Request: fold
Amino acid sequence: MFTAVVQISLPKPISPEEAARAFELTAPIYQGLRGLVRKYYLRSEDGRRVGGIYLWETRAAGETLYNADWKARVKKLYGAEPEISWFDTPVVVDNQAGGAIIKAA
Reply:
């Protein structure tokens, strides 16, 4: 598995309510998306950065999403370019699934 950390530095701070509205607007895009295991939306405490943590079955699946159209949509919604960092994710501990330790294939 692979984790992508997407961060966006905002031109002006966003409130928790504004962030929740923006996140809820885009959430349906990610529901049932092939290769995406899980996505967490993020907002810094000062509201100056937003982003997401994406757990992917493969890096290729994630790279398919992060295309020019996706980047343009992010820039239009938040007014800034996204920064994407990739991490190999060989093990995940899932406490909601009884503390299961999931090893990547």
In short: The chain has a mean pLDDT of 93. The longest strand covers residues 2-9.
